[in-house]
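== Item description ==
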Amino acid sequence: MEENFNEENSTKEEQKYEYPSETLENKVEIKDDDFNEKNEDFSVIMGKKTRTFLITSLAILTVLVVFLISYIIYSFGNFKGLQSPSLLTNNSEESSHTSGESEIKFESSTPEGELSAESIYEMVSPSVVGVVVYDSHADIISDPTSEGSGIVISEKGYIVTNSHVVGNSKQNNIKIVLNTGEEFSGKVLGYDSKTDLAVIKTDKTGLKAATFGNSDEVKVGASALALGNPLGLDFASSLTRGIVSAINRPASGGPKSLVKYIQTDAAINPGNSGGPLINMRGQIIGINSTKIAVAHCEGMGFAIPSNTVKTIVDDIIDKGYVSGRVRLGMSGKMVSNYQAQIYNVPVGFIVSEISSESNLGSSGVQVGDIVTKINGVSVTSLDAFYGELYNHKAGESITLSIFRPSRTRMSSETFEVNVVLLEDKGETQQETTSKK
């Protein structure tokens, strides 16, 4: 549009210039005299005054032409500049991500002195958002499938929340709601169900990022605040207070052995998931993930430590998955103590499917076999299973102790196989029921 506008302007500039009427008349008279009446030589008829005027006019025209050409070149250059991707799209330098660079702000040193809860709320609440999740196949009048909380970690539009909040999926539609009520869309960049973390990316930039602190410095008994949206957006930006009840708590059930939680008695309710646990210096020390909710239990909330968050989130943003993970190339579930007694089999991991990429099949492992040990370590739970598995790297070989039950339950077979571990690039992520 600007190029056309400039071209019109330049045309108008040329049209504005008019020769003095007197000069045009003189010119016509000279020609008439020259060719029609006197037939004299043109150089003789041209008087000194006329020659001076023409030379001056030519100089003015030359300057004008140079000016117009310069203006057109300048305008075209500006137009070309406007065509650069950084201005035509939201992928400006500000919103780009440099591989290997963390988007999470960690304070290098712990500030001295504690702040009031009021000051911390004012500081952190603009960085805490509502995360509303819709089924990608739902129609326009459908209700959300889940609502939770999230934390802005970068002005470039990166938001961290729980994997279970986004439904352990990249496919669901995401709406982000600021504490001001402003709404905009987001997309799940990646998730990791084993640590219950997910990263959402939005095209909106200029968001206020929260500041994280070193979770290794967290002490039991220290005051802590939880901020989020308990029971959904109707109670958005609710602040609760408690203390750090314990550190390095293992997960109770589920394949989350990589996370050693910060336990807190600050009130955490459904909808708080994905929101921050904050120290009294206004730093994020954890992301609230779960709580023990039974009739006889009070104040048992758990947050993923900030140092764990940084490691996982950096990988998700860079690669879309968590690097350094391994997998056996099979799926299945744990045989409980009760099931073991009923079916007269040992506790272990029963195989339900084997990947064609794994050498489990060629090693003799079959569907229905039970893995009882990994390198001599008993598989008594999924925590034990993954805990031993993650002590190794992709390409390494491990020894599995296998129990194969008899169809008649009268006899059984035990043997060992060597299996080469595969790299887990997110293949083990499975769709699970959304929970808050």
